[in-house]
Structure formats: C-alpha cells, structure tokens
Design goal:
By secondary structure, this protein is of the alpha+beta class. It contains 2 helices and 12 strands. The protein has 2 domains: 58 residues, no CATH class; 150 residues, Immunoglobulin-like.
Length: 213
C-alpha cells in the first residue's frame, strides 16, 4: 500500500534464518564469492608462476669474479644452474660446457662442510665455485682455497675466501682461461696475513669428481 513499507519474509531454508538483516548479509557475501570465482584460475596461475620462479632462484648460483692469485686470469661473472638440468649448457661468452665436476668439502683439522664445483667450457675456460661453512678466523688470518694436480705440480690458488656477513658462510669464485680438469684435489688453508704466498695449514678439503648432466 502507498506510504507503507513492504516486508518480505524469506523461508528459513538453505542456511537462511528468516531474519532479513542476517539473510541480506548472507546473500551479499554469497554474491561476492560468486563474483570472485571466475578469477580463481588466474590466481592459481599467478601463484604457480611465483613458485616456479622461486624454485629456479634456489637452484641458481653465480660463479665468476673474485680476486685470485696464481695462474688464473680473472674474467667476467657467469651464472650457471647447479641443479643438474638436462640438455646442453651454453655460455654466451665462453661457449658450450664440455665438462663438469663437483664434490663435498669437509674439515680436516677444523669443523667444516661445503661444496665445490668446476665447469669446463669449450674455449678452455674453467670456472670454479666454492662454498664452505667454517668458523670465522681470528684477526690477521684468512682462509685460502687451492687446486692440486699431483704431488709434483705447484698448487693453484683460487683466492681468499670471503664472508660478507662476517659469519661462518665463506665462498670464493675463480675463473681461469686454462683448462684445469686435471686438478681434482681441493684444499682450504688457514693463512696468516704476513705476505707469504705459499700454502699454509690445510683445514678442509675435498675431491672434484667428474660427472655428466
């Protein structure tokens, strides 16, 4: 009737209470969800893409530039995937990867653990990446990594290990224009900052073992 408000009562079924205020809020939430449902596939795809990107970053490390001594010449930084991807690995500067070796590192006189990898490319470039968990040395001391071929050949220095966060996580990155696939023994030595370039006491090490992707 004119001048009077009409009241419509909704039967209390399928979750409706019969109270218009409660039922209107229920209908509003249901409509909001229905409006959102067409967007669900898009959100699933976006979430999958984010997870894939995160997983890729977890499997990627950068090996390359590092102040090193010895016979190795320093070139540019190279990022390589270390999760053993299938197929051919090609660097735009150095060409195809023709060999790969890696191995675990462990402490000898100190508690330590880590991993080392060596990548051999078709232009004779060798790239070595080393990560080691070991106690921070005292002031005036540092760790240095080396490659050994045999008992009669001088070791090649990979450089000083760095720990930018001043914690146990140490690393070194080395690039040489020589093929070093005959150097398979890895040493980490504790060095005093006294200008002596000869190897100090070995505190950790490992063996590079050739593998195929």
């Amino acid at each position: 009737m004119p001048g009077q408000s009409a009241r419509i009562t909704i039967p209390a079924c399928r979750g409706f209470s019969g109270d218009p205020d409660v039922d209107n809020r229920f209908v509003s939430r249901e409509n909001s969800f229905m409006n959102f449902r067409p967007l669900l596939p898009l959100f699933v795809l976006l979430l999958s893409a984010c997870l894939s990107s995160t997983e890729k970053e977890k499997n990627t490390v950068s090996i390359g530039t590092q102040g090193a001594t010895g016979t190795g010449d320093i070139t540019e930084e190279l990022s390589v995937v270390t999760a053993m991807p299938s197929g051919t690995i090609v660097d735009p500067v150095h060409g195809k990867e023709i060999g790969l070796a890696y191995g675990p590192l462990s402490g000898t006189s100190l508690s330590a653990n880590g991993v080392v990898s060596a990548h051999y490319l078709e232009d004779a470039t060798t790239i070595v990446g080393l990560q080691l968990n070991i106690a921070v040395p005292q002031d005036g001391w540092f760790y240095e990594a080396w490659l050994e071929k045999d008992a009669h050949t001088p070791w090649i220095s990979l450089g000083h290990l760095s720990n930018p966060l001043n914690d146990v996580r140490h690393s070194v990155r080395f690039v040489s224009k020589e093929t070093l696939n005959s150097y398979r023994t890895v040493h980490i030595t504790l060095e005093e900052d006294d200008g002596d370039s000869s190897p100090g006491t070995t505190v950790a090490g490992g063996i590079l073992k050739a593998t195929t992707r």
